[in-house]
Amino acid sequence: MKTILTIIAVIFFGTVAMAQDANKEVKVDAVTVGVELNIDIQKQAKKETEVARLYKFKNSRVKKELSFKTKKDRAKLA
Fold first, then answer.
1. Integer angstrom CA distances of residue 71 from 44, 58, 61, 66
2. CA–CA distance, 14 with 6 (Å, rounded to integer)
3. Cα distance between residue 70 and residue 37, in whole Å
4. Tens digits of per-residue pLDDT, 40-75?
5. pLDDT tens, 11-48?
6. Residues contacting 63, CB < 8 A, separation 6+
7. Cα dist. 40→15, 34, 37, 43 in Å?
8. Which candidate, 75, 55, 74, places its Cα nearest to that of 65?
9. Alpha-carbon distance 23 to 19, whole Å?
10. CB of 3 within 8 A of CB of 9?
11. Any idea which UniProt keywords this protein has (predicted)?
C-alpha cells in the first residue's frame, strides 16, 4: 500500500512540475561574423631515407647494451 501511494505521489508531483510555465523562452539575437581562411600549403618534395644497421658480431656495442642482465635476473637456490 505504501509503495502504491509513493508511486502515485511521484507521478503527481512530476506532472505538476512539468505543467508550470514559469520559464518562458527568450529569443536571443544571433550575430553573424564573416570568417576568412587564408591557408597556404607548401608541399616539400624532400624524401627522407632511413638506414637500418645490422650488426653481425656478438661483440658489437648495441647487442651488448640490449642483452644486459642484472644480479636479480639470476636464478637463486632455495
1. 51, 21, 20, 16
2. 12
3. 58
4. 777 776 677 777 776 566 666 777 777 777 777 777
5. 999 988 887 766 677 788 888 888 888 777 777 766 77
6. 55, 57
7. 58, 19, 10, 10
8. 55
9. 11
10. no
11. Signal
pLDDT band at 3 (very low <50, low <70, confident <90, very high): very high
Amino acid at 52: A
C-alpha cell at 34: 564573416
Q: How many CA atoms lie within 13 A of 57 on its CB side?
A: 3
Q: Which of 44, 46, 62 is nearest to 54 (CA)?
A: 62
Q: Average of pLDDT values for 1-16?
A: 92
Tell me if 54 sits within 8 A of 61, measured CB to CB. no
Whether 66 and 58 have beta carbons less than 8 Å apart is answered as: no
